[in-house]
Amino acid sequence: MFGGIEKAFYIAKKDLKEYYMKPGTISWGLIFPFVFSLAFMIRRGGMSVWLAPGMISLALFFGSTSMSAMAIVFERRIDSFERLLLFPISYVCIALGKSLSSFVLGIIALIPVLILAEIFTSTPPLNPLLLMVCVLLATFTSSTFGVLLSFLIKDPSQTMTIFNIVRFPMMFLSNVIIPVNTFPQILKIISLLMPLTYITEAIRYSYSGIYDIIPPYMSLSVTAILGILFLYLSSLVIKRNIP
């Protein structure tokens, strides 16, 4: 077991070395969350206690999913991903390795947004320790979601387009910038089907001690379960796609 985890770390290290400075990861993973948060801050004259957790969840979500999109898609395009399948490593550990590199980029993308929130939010996080736990758990779940989506896409050349088709509706339907409790009933149901909703609710509770529609124990539990589920499903998709 520990040998497989060690191999997963090597996969993550290789991905970070090769794909960290790719245009897609820089533009969508690092620059976009920061610029988006800055734009909202300027528009509203600051970053409110309610908005800051949404910007935090958005930054880690875009950062982690962008890394998996670049690394996995590029390897599938040049048929180099199959090399990993020649090594004595389980499919779960391959998916874990890809998720870990995405996890690191998600944390890196989060740092400038956290700094903005610290400087321009009137009150500090209510529970910093819980916030750290929520951020780590949310970044892992976002990473495994990105890995799963990357492997499900059949045409690698369409990956970033499909990713943004999935991610942009989540920005507006997952309680990031618009309160879900103001939505019509059908949109509330759609919001509850999106992992980013639970991520945002968990971070918002740890940051401000409030939540909109999902209690903290439920948002944390669902976020953790989804992370494990996405990782397992990614391993199944890898196995299914073996020629």
Q: Which structural class is indicated by helix and strand composition? A: mainly alpha
Supply the number of helical segments. 9
Pick out the low-confidence regions: none
Strand content: under 5%
Rounded to an integer in angstroms, the radius of gyration calculated over CA atoms is 18 Å
Integer tally of domains = 1
Following the backbone from N to C, one meets helices and strands in this order, namely HHHHHHHHH
- What is the 3D shape? globular
Number of strands: 0
What is the helix fraction of residues, given as a range?
A: over 70%
- Distance from N terminus to C terminus (CA atoms, Å) equals 26 Å
Average pLDDT figure:
87
Instruction: Describe the main β-sheet briefly.
Output: none
